[in-house]
Amino acid sequence: MASENIRPENREERVARLRQTDRTPVLIVGGGINGISTFRELALQGIPVVLVEKGDWCQAASGALSRMIHGGLRYLETGEFALVKESVQERDRLLKNAPHYVAPLRTTVPVDSWAGGVINAGKRFLRLSEKPGRRGALVIKTGLTLYDTWSRRYGNMPRHQLHNQQQTRQRWPGLADWVKCSAAYYDAWIAAPERLGFELIDDTERANPTALALNYVSVESGDGEILTLRDAISGEEFSLKAHVVVNATGAWIDRLNGRLSPRRPEHQLIGGTKGSHLILKSPELLKMLDGEMIYYENQEGRVCIMFPWFGNVLVGSTDIRVDDPDNVVCEAEEQRYILESLKFVFPHLTLSDEDVLYTFCGVRPLPASEAASNGKISRNHSLALLPPTAERDFTTLCLVGGKWTTFRKFGEQAADRVLKLLGRSRKVSTTDLPIGGGRNFPSAARKPEWIKTLSHEYSFSPTRVEQLVSRYGTRAQPMMRFMRSQPDRALHANPDWSQNELRYLIRHEQVQLLEDLLVRRTPLAIGGLLTPLLIDEIAGLLADELGWPAERRQQHMTETLSRLASQHGLGRLSPVAVNKESRHVSQSESKTQPPV
């Protein structure tokens, strides 16, 4: 891995590299987790690959996951054993390779009977029925036994347990009366998926300086030979030839294929479904969960989840067919559906729309399917190869489907297919390769002493070091060096964050828009921490770093507030509220801003 001390390229330098590149062996289009993984796999084999994303990294479906890293327990009843086995293996690899963000999560499954659901499960397994149905303890135990077998082979997760009604009530007194028993097992959760995606890119470019990843660059068109790319920031267009184009655009795969050559492809590859989630402010529910996840079936037998999320509760999800992946949002009906599903499990909870801090959703890039039930569409991944034709000189490889948990394996498979097309062979395996801030991350036993050492070395309090390490893993070390290189101040609106901490993210992590910082490089938005003053303060920092005039800053902040309201239910953060609170603070600027 290249030295951390290498100065990162700014956007102008990156764009200049793209401008000077008229031909590349591989162009990857789509900066979600699967496109990023394929970029990593190819670049580590020495391929000068180019990756472009029309928005920000992990902006769409890859930033709208349930925040779970799991084996896919429910896929067993549809016979997708290979997918579950692969998922369990990749889950355990992520626990080892990204321990700064991925951690075990104890999970409880409430069950309404011991023997129920056997016949329905058999029908679903034999493809004789697609109707959702409730699953009894015996059906769930059968699946968890297989889960345990693979977990023990590839990792060291504790085995599952079945609890009778008395044991279940003792642990979960608030569960609905229909719950007769429960099962408990372990999966995992991910604290910062968007950050992990960026760290994969950063690791890759350090290891192979000939590789180039650029966000906010789209593929506009193709004439069968030359592709036209456009920089969304400057509006500049570029011409590029590629031997292989990897289409990793997820729900937009069919649209991109239609732009890559004069004749549209005949076959539809994608039939996506929308999944929405809520972040709830519910101290009562948070206390009941006590660090665990509830993995439950709602009234219809559809699987839902809820688990603690940085002082709040994450709840989801829906599964709705969509034809247009652009501008999908969590609709009011979905919000009601999720809240009703939650009350089906904990009927005594009092929840309303006012308890919803944040909403998010994305379109799962599932394969086109005629299945009557969305839950029966395979979550497995596949590769669709479109060879050159008389109208198109290059090969297109489409990445269809996939789960967040299996991104490494899917990227490996896609890269191996591309390497074969290029006549190249694999040199490096990513099986046991640490990711970003997970590199040299200490064990739980060693962590307190490590925190003490960092506190002494960088002159930060142990509490502040712990805070930064929890956000960035071992990547906190170069950040702390930067933060100490010049005077720093805590933010007025949230003293848990400092100016230099955000400056470091802006300069080193390809931040171009305010949302990049608020939604993806930090947990400020999803954590329910945004206030009008905080947004205004961070907008000022970003404007200073990117050299924006006052008019550009104000326009961008207004656009950002509008998108946060429409896409994440943050209507309370209106431009009027921001301006009002900013004026109030400016009148009391005599207060001393606390140092870090």
Assembly state here?
Answer: single chain
- Helical run tally: 19
Low-confidence regions:
121-129, 586-592
Main β sheet profile: 10 strands, mixed
Q: Please tell me how large the radius of gyration is.
A: 24 Å
User: Would you count the extended β strands for me?
Assistant: 18
Supply database-style keywords.
8-stranded mixed sheet, alpha+beta, 10-stranded mixed sheet, 19% strand, 596 residues, 38% helix, globular
Q: Nutshell version of this structure?
A:
With 596 residues, the protein is an alpha+beta fold.
Written overview of the protein:
- This protein is an alpha+beta fold.
- It is built from 19 helices and 18 strands.
- Helix 2 links the parallel strand 1 and strand 2.
- The chain is globular.
Write the layout of secondary structure elements.
Blueprint (H helix, E strand, L loop, with lengths): L10 H9 L3 E7 L3 H11 L6 E4 L14 E2 L11 H17 L4 E10 L6 H8 L11 H18 L6 E3 L1 H7 L9 E10 L2 H15 L4 E4 L1 E6 L4 E5 L5 E11 L5 H8 L12 E8 L2 H7 L3 E5 L5 E7 L2 E5 L3 E2 L10 H14 L10 E9 L16 E6 L8 E7 L5 H16 L24 H12 L3 H11 L3 H8 L15 H10 L5 H8 L10 H15 L3 H19 L6 H12 L10
Parallel strand pairs: 1-2, 1-10, 2-7, 4-12, 10-18
Antiparallel strand pairs: 3-6, 4-6, 5-6, 8-9, 9-10, 11-14, 11-15, 11-16, 12-13, 13-14, 17-18
